[in-house]
Amino acid sequence: MSLINRGLAAFLFTTVICFGLSVEKVHSNDFVSGAEKFITALAAKAEKSLLSEEIKPIEHQKRFRKLMLDSFDLNGVGKWVIGRYWRRSSKHERAEYLNLFEEFIVATYSKRFRGYTKAKLQINGATKRKTAAFVNSQINREGAKPIRIIWRVKLLNGEYKIADIIIEGISWIQTQRSEFISVIRNNGGKISGLIKALRKKIIYLTSEKK
């Protein structure tokens, strides 16, 4: 399966964290309430730091990288999406893969952020399941049906981090896992095949005209 993300999923992923928010419900549970506030603050931060036509591409990508590293559990997601192949890889392969995974995510989505269309993200409450908070929301667009978004948020080392985004029932990390595992299997079950594919994709993304 191609490393090029599906158009709709990629568009939604890159737009949901930069819209203005209206919080409708506040829960008494501190963890769940904190997760809601975290998503609200993330949206405000993204809107302030990224949504300006005056920002040059290089500076935009720099700011986007910081936002991703501050808000997403990229290391955790990176390990999870390759499943058992993480345990089968060498220390050197793991380090190289995680570095490339970060570059791939930043290169893929920072470009898409610059072409988003404004909408309104509405928070509809949250629930706790095991160790994660699931923040329910929807994107309201003029003249279009609302899009359901669920944010899976975890508390890691005292900080809230996004572990997944579920868009209309489709999990971002499940989709990424399916794509990456397919690449590994098509290369004899070796993570080196995925590393090579990521390098090529990053070169392609970063060499595209701005």
Biggest beta sheet attributes: 6 strands, mixed
Could you give the distance between the termini?
26 Å
The CATH level-2 architecture is identified as Roll
Strand content: 15-25%
Backbone shape = globular
Number of alpha- plus pi-helical segments:
8
CATH topology (fold) name? Nuclear Transport Factor 2, Chain: A
**Secondary structure: number of strands:** 6
Give the overall pLDDT as a whole number: 82
**Helix and strand succession?**
HEHHHHHEEEEEHH
Fourth-level CATH superfamily: Tgt2/MlaC
Q: What is the CA-atom radius of gyration, in angstroms? A: 17 Å
Helical content class: 40-55%
Class inferred from helices and paired strands: alpha+beta
Overall CATH class: Alpha Beta
Low-confidence stretches: 4-8, 20-28
How many domains comprise the coordinates? Answer: 1
Task: Describe the strand arrangement of the main beta sheet, using strand numbers.
Answer: 1-2-3-4-5-6
Can you walk through the features of this model?
The chain is globular. A hairpin with a 6-residue loop joins β3 and β4. The protein is of the alpha+beta class. Strands 1-2-3-4-5-6 form a 6-stranded mixed sheet. α1 crosses α6, α2 runs antiparallel to α3 and α4 packs across α6. It has a single domain, classed as Roll (Nuclear Transport Factor 2, Chain: A). The protein is built from 8 helices and 6 strands. The longest helix is centred in the middle third of the chain and has 23 residues.
